[in-house]
């Protein structure tokens, strides 16, 4: 792969790791870029993501796709390669997240959802066809039964344009870059048709888990949620939510993360992953909610 990238006039190539996709950095025409190696998406889906980003970047601060040798997406061997500007901003672990950061994260998501309303022309799949859903179906019967029940509940919800549309799909604090209080949204690989509430649930879900899944801090994250939603509503009064359903979307994300961790070798699991597995299995087995309260925002 390195030699192929050099043939595209990309140099100084380094690994940035990545999770579902391998991520590299490099230099192209003297500018720093990020390269994503994709195996879970089709060419059509990836081009739809690029098209969406190109339009969204005209109205807000999101990572910009770039062309390499005249192409946004290049097929090579078993991979699709897509290319993005490298942002000179900070990752979440390089600073302490403040309520202002959460407010601005909510504001950015509100802008994304407002743009997405009635955007049905993009060739992206819905939540039931996400690659992680297939991973869940490879787990034991109890987990598959929980998935089936969760999807049945979600399927029964109203798919009206102000509730349901094209969402980020992976909107957590690690997919934001920070410059003081400003944020820039990255990684739209999970762009999908789903309920807008799911993006909000994902953001809060990982903050609730924090550094210890067995020690969830509800009160602190209720405050985060309120600041996040104030930011959201400062720019978007159009999308609507049934917040009583947020625990359903917590559960969907919980199952997807459980399936992803299950793909890792047991020997490589750290304390956090082991605690998360224990928490999830206990909650599913005992029919417990992810958190024992319902979030709400008027």
Automatic annotation (TrEMBL):
Coiled coil: none annotated. One of its GO terms (molecular function) is homoserine kinase activity. Residues 28-205 form the Aminoglycoside phosphotransferase domain. GO terms for biological process: threonine biosynthetic process. InterPro entries: Aminoglycoside_PTrfase, Kinase-like_dom_sf, Pseudomonas-type_ThrB. Keywords: Transferase. Belongs to the pseudomonas-type ThrB family. This is Phosphotransferase. It comes from Hujiaoplasma nucleasis. The lineage of its organism: Bacteria, Bacillati, Mycoplasmatota, Mollicutes, Candidatus Izemoplasmatales.
């Amino acid at each position: 792969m390195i030699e192929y990238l050099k043939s595209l006039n990309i140099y100084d190539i380094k690994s940035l790791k990545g999770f579902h996709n391998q991520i590299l950095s490099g230099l192209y025409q003297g500018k720093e870029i990020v390269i994503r190696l994709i195996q879970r998406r089709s060419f059509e889906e990836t081009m739809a993501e690029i098209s969406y980003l190109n339009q969204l970047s005209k109205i807000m601060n999101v990572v910009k796709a770039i062309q390499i040798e005249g192409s946004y997406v290049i097929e090579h061997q078993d991979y699709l390669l897509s290319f993005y500007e490298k942002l000179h901003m900070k990752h979440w672990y390089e600073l302490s997240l403040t309520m202002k950061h959460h407010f601005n994260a909510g504001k950015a998501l509100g802008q994304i959802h407002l743009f997405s309303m009635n955007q049905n022309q993009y060739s992206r799949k819905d939540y039931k066809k996400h690659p992680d859903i297939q991973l869940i179906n490879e787990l034991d019967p109890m987990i598959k039964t929980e998935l089936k029940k969760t999807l049945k509940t979600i399927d029964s919800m109203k798919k009206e344009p102000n509730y349901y549309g094209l969402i980020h799909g992976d909107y957590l604090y690690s997919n934001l870059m920070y410059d003081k209080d400003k944020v820039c949204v990255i990684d739209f690989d999970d762009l999908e048709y789903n309920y807008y509430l799911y993006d909000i649930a994902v953001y809060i879900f990982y903050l609730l888990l924090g550094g210890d899944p067995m020690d969830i801090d509800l009160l602190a994250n209720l405050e985060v949620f309120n600041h996040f939603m104030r930011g959201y509503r400062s720019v978007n009064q159009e999308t609507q939510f049934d917040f009583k359903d947020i625990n359903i979307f917590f559960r969907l994300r919980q199952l997807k993360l459980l399936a992803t961790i299950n793909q890792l070798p047991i020997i490589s699991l750290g304390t956090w992953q082991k605690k998360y597995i224990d928490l999830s299995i206990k909650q599913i087995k005992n029919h417990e909610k992810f958190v024992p309260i319902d979030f709400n925002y008027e």
